[in-house]
Design a protein that fits this description.
AraC_XylS_family_regulators; single chain; Arc Repressor Mutant, subunit A; alpha+beta; 2 domains; Helix-turn-helix transcriptional regulator
């Protein structure tokens, strides 16, 4: 069973998941990074460019960071973790990773302990860089990449470089991922696929189907049958 709630950390989501008999399902690209707790280990899930297996059996807990915010909190550029799941001890000094692991292991609610750790890191990091959030807002609204660069007053190369560090991939890939998420929200709300394609920013339903297959590995009709988050 999967459950989530809004975090006290702006834009983040705290979640828990215990896979059922049919397995853990698949995790779809969403532009986010997660800090995970599973079987006594802390892991970082990098930004995905394709669907990933949901992980091993047993309970999971995590905090999913809003796109572009995790690198400043975790201390690693997003592109270094693209399509990867890495132990936190491989990213942080051993003593820091051990302390947080012990704190989460001792907590009655591991998800809340992860949230507290993220809030503490955010307080130490200071005010967030506003540019990644502005990039997400523009691309999530369906703005073309060139228009986004012009609106934000940055050149195409700088936009690409900043996107790699913040999101793990360039703005064109981020735009595709955000468009996929728009389409899934519409389709799961009962909007027919042809209308979903138009409203989400695809050329047509065939374009939607191709993108969904490339990013998730399954056609839209199967994807919406469940087993994803």
């Amino acid at each position: 069973m999967y459950a989530e709630r809004a975090s006290r950390l702006t834009g983040a989501v705290v979640w828990t998941h215990t896979p059922g008999p049919s397995g853990a399902g698949r995790v779809l690209p969403d532009g986010c990074m997660d800090l995970l707790w599973h079987e006594g280990r802390l892991l970082v899930a990098g930004p995905d460019t394709r669907a990933q297996a949901g992980g091993g059996p047993g309970p999971w807990a995590g905090i999913r960071f809003f796109p572009g915010t995790a690198p400043a909190l975790l201390g690693v550029p997003a592109h270094e973790l693209r399509d990867r799941r890495v132990g936190l001890s491989d990213l942080w000094p051993a003593s820091e990773a051990r302390r947080l692991t012990a704190r989460v292991a001792a907590a009655a609610d591991p998800a809340r302990a992860l949230e507290e750790a993220a809030l503490s890191r955010a307080a130490d990091a200071g005010p967030p860089d506003p540019l990644p959030g502005r990039i997400v807002a523009a691309l999530a609204a369906g703005r073309p990449v060139a228009h986004t660069a012009d609106t934000l007053g940055v050149g195409a190369r700088l936009l690409h470089r900043r996107s790699l560090a913040a999101f793990g991939y360039g703005p064109k890939t981020l735009a595709r991922v955000l468009r996929l998420q728009r389409a899934l929200t519409l389709a799961r709300g009962g909007v027919p696929l042809a209308e979903t394609a138009v409203r989400a920013g695809f050329a047509d339903q065939a374009h939607l189907s191709r993108d969904v297959r490339e990013l998730t590995g399954v056609p839209p009709t199967l994807l919406l049958g469940g087993g994803t988050r």
